[in-house]
Write a structure and sequence with these properties.
By secondary structure, the chain is mainly alpha-helical. The chain has helices at 5-29, 35-57, 60-82, 85-105, 115-123, 130-160, 163-192, 201-219. The chain has a domain at 86-218. It starts with a helix and ends in a 5-residue tail after the last helix. The model has no long low-confidence stretch (mean pLDDT 84).
Length: 224
Amino acid sequence: MIPAPAILLRGLALVALLVAWAVLAHQGSSGNGNPDVSVALAMAPFLALAVILLWRVGNPLWIAVGGLAVVGVLAWFWPELRQNVAKLFYVQHLGTNLALAALFGRTLFGNHEALVTQFAKLAHGGVISSAKTRYTRQVTIAWSIFFVANALVSTALFWLASPAAWSIFANLLSTPLLGLMFVIEHLCRYYILPPGDRSSVADTIRAYRASSALKRSETLPKQS
């Protein structure tokens, strides 16, 4: 099925944004980019997280105070941040991979259901076969290992190799490696599982959106 023009344009825009981000991050980490632009780029995810946390507070006064505090701290440390651009990107890359490893890995212990198993149940109406349950658990393990390995390789390159070598791995190869992981898992899924047990990422996204919409509708106050 050919995607709609709007969906295709959004996809192309996202790819262009990711490529631009990777190139600018690589230049900054290698010491060839504008320091101010590089710091702003490296701090963007942290600032986005701060905005989300402040927004959840709900109190306008605390949002204003917290926002001013974040701006003040950032302005105070800006000269030092300009001197440690590569370390900023390293912390960002390391933190992202460790957070994702924890997100997948923590569901493998105790009474938790493996994260990919949860995604599969969303795509199949809450019911999957025992074969798919075993497979999705193995995929959850594989993703956990992938993110831990990324963090380890990133750390080794950052401290033992040149900034440029580390940046090539962290900023230019991370997204292609992530895509390769998806492709490998997709091929394994079609090789191991029967047709009735297969589901795509798009199926999971659609099911997740439907589930979220249902939950929101159930939590809305009933009108008399």
